[in-house]
TrEMBL record:
It comes from [Mycobacterium] crassicus. InterPro entries: AB_hydrolase_fold, Lipase_secreted. Residues 15-36 are annotated as: Disordered. SUPFAM superfamilies: alpha/beta-Hydrolases. It holds the Pfam family LIP. PANTHER family: LIPASE 5, PTHR34853. This is Lipase family protein.
Length: 445
């Protein structure tokens, strides 16, 4: 797509923006597919990427049940799909009430591990009070979003799969992430400076979306002051991940991703139509309306071979499937911002070999990369354990502290770092405040 033809000024909101919708407490939120807020107004495709189309205040709640004393604004904004076609999606923005007014407030775009097609798993719905989103990983990640806020930083939490749940699609998640930041910076009442330092952070499926944002930001959003990007166990190679997880406890994840990618790649949909059994096609349709945890529990230790008319090993070698694997693989462009990559050596979901290869590709291309290979952790545990490291690293980037001149690779367990425990204490305080419904204010660093 020729982005040079697009103007980059997004400092003002679209002249056709609909009025801001005030908070309406006590009302159960509609799911994204039924909520008119998500419908882009006529002519939105003529707006610039990152333009705010509609906004509203919302109530947030931990697990949808425990109200949180946070001011949250949702922005419907114009972005772009992988083919360069205009689309609209939503980000949820939180701004600390006790921020330092003497300097620009940093903003972190946090990409949740949505890992689903179902709109109930989108952050804009799952984070809201009274949302029926049980089984969404996003609801658990709310603690980490609050930890960012407790640092005195603003947070943008985009629906990076777009409205149609394009999980696994290339490039598009990056556009959604970057345009979400543009939208937040352009919203005057949020009082965020256009040159505010920006951090990008995501883990697992959220790490994949963050990886795409890192790769496309240099061409797509060069005006953004992206100070650092933190990738936690990103899904660097979807093809290898599918083959590795098939038949494992986590087999629901690749099955759901296939359902999502079939929406993006017509040739893949043709392969499914020709080779999936009746039960296989029914399974994929059902996964489109299933939350992430429910898909994992439903499909645990089931092999996709039982839903197709030939061995999976044969189907994945077909040109249509190989094209999808190649197209969705990270590493085609070297990110320009500084990067921290975190990966567990004994990760049972994402192969360390895939991430080693991605890190080597980035380093060979001149990326400013710090790569932490964790010796003790596994996939689920590493995310909270690495949070103190990530937040500290982002704080250094926001303070413009120097980076090592060459890529750095570390192999040291986070469990043996004393700073991890101090950071986990702070994270525990944030979680305790959320569980009790207390205000999450700035915590001492």
């Amino acid at each position: 797509m020729d982005f040079d033809s697009l103007a980059r000024q997004t400092s003002v909101e679209w002249i056709g923006q609909e009025p801001h919708q005030p908070l309406q407490p006590g009302i159960r939120p509609e799911q994204p597919g039924k909520d008119p807020f998500y419908e882009a107004p006529a002519g939105f495709e003529h707006a610039l990427p990152g333009t705010v189309l509609r906004s509203r205040d919302v109530e947030l709640a931990f697990l949808g049940l425990i109200p949180q004393r946070m001011h949250a604004t949702q922005l419907l904004y114009r972005t772009t799909d992988r083919n360069g076609v205009a689309q609209a999606t939503v980000t949820t923005v939180l701004v600390p009430g006790d921020r330092d007014q003497t300097k620009p407030c940093p903003i972190v775009s946090y990409q949740c591990a949505i890992d689903a097609v179902d709109g109930r798993c989108f952050p804009s719905y799952a984070l809201r009070r009274r949302a029926k989103s049980y089984g969404s990983f996003t609801q658990l990640e709310f603690v980490l979003i609050a930890a960012i806020l407790a640092r005195g930083w603003a947070v943008s939490v985009p629906d990076h799969e777009g409205r149609d749940g394009h999980w696994g699609a290339p490039y598009e998640p990056g556009y959604c992430v970057l345009d979400g930041v543009r939208a937040a910076l352009a919203t005057e009442r949020l009082e965020l400076a256009a040159d505010a330092p920006i951090g990008l952070w995501g883990y697992s499926g959220g790490g994949l979306a963050t990886g795409w944002a890192a790769e496309v930001c240099g061409d797509y959003a060069p005006e953004l002051n992206i100070a650092g990007v933190a990738l936690g166990s990103p899904v660097g190679d979807l093809g290898n991940t599918l083959k590795r997880l098939n038949g494992s406890f986590w087999s629901g994840l690749p099955a759901t991703m296939i359902a999502a990618l079939a929406r993006t790649y017509p040739d893949l949909e043709d392969v499914i139509d020709h080779h999936a059994t009746v039960d296989g096609r029914a399974l994929l349709r059902s996964l489109e309306t299933t939350t992430t945890a429910a898909a994992v529990l439903r499909m645990h230790h089931r092999s996709l071979d039982s839903y197709i008319d030939r061995p999976l090993e044969q189907l994945v070698e077909t040109p249509a499937v190989q094209h999808v694997f190649a197209d969705t693989r990270l590493g085609g462009t070297i990110p320009t911002p500084p990067m921290l990559m975190v990966q567990a050596i004994y990760d049972e979901v994402i192969s360390v070999n895939d991430i080693d290869k991605l890190a080597a590709t980035y380093a060979a291309g001149g990326a400013r990369l710090t790569y932490h290979r964790d010796l003790f952790s596994e996939h689920v545990v590493l995310h909270p354990l690495s949070t103190p490291m990530v937040l500290s690293w982002l704080a250094d980037r926001f303070a413009n502290r120097p980076l090592p001149e060459t890529p750095v690779q570390k192999e040291w367990p986070t469990l043996l770092n004393p700073k991890t425990y101090l950071g986990l204490v702070r994270l525990g305080l944030v979680a305790a405040k959320m569980i009790t419904g207390g205000a999450v204010g700035r915590l001492p660093l």
